[in-house]
Amino acid sequence: MNEHLERCTHSGKICPWYTTGCNSTTRRPLNSYGLAMISWGRLSELMFQNLASRYSNFLAMFTHFLTTLALSALIINGLGCSVCQAEEAAPAPPARPVKPVSIAALNRMQKEADAAMEAKDYATVVTKTEELLKVLPEQSATKEQMEQLYFNIGLANLLGEHFPEAEKAFTECATKYPNGLLASRCVLGVAKACIAQDTTPKLEQAAMALRVAKQNPKFNAEAEALLAELNRERVRRMQVLEASQKP
Hints:
The chain has 247 residues and is mostly helical. It folds into two domains: 31-78; 103-245, Serine Threonine Protein Phosphatase 5, Tetratricopeptide repeat (Alpha Horseshoe), CATH 1.25.40.10. It has eight helices and two strands. The longest helix is centred in the first third of the chain and has 58 residues, at 32-89. The protein is elongated, with a radius of gyration of 50 Å.
């Protein structure tokens, strides 16, 4: 017999009987196999509903997470842009106005530097000259006057035996005024400061500076004498080195 489950024509529910027409004369109770099939079908239906419910909950939570993440990124990006725009829009602080110095004060500072040079107070010469350069408007002084001030700093450092500072000051003066009246003197000053530092790289630098300085006829003799002395010293040191290496 081709038995199957049918819905009852009276109630519309699954008939709990194997039947061919669901009437009082033909129905009979389900056997154990039929009960097992109904239980497994119901269990499968419940498992499917449970999985579908969990998947829906997970999908909703994941969607909420993505939405929150996107909103957070937008907020952070917006705040960052706002900060950047605020920084870009912030006006630069106004430059501090330079307090004008009277001519009398400038002359007094220059006289103090000159007096310190005569007294061989070279540290004071450097200090006073640097202070003068800070407050002296360039438009109120000629290039020759400005060049002389920078040269005096190098000269005071050289006479005060501050040789690296002297080299730096002479180099700065020659760089600022390459065609100035004291340009060759500055190059000669660089050579003397390098010789006084007495290292191999500085002696090489001194030799190069002397070759430049001797191009000026006014300093040719002095530069040639220093260069000759430098070459003799170099030969002497090479001989000492070779002697020390012999067994």
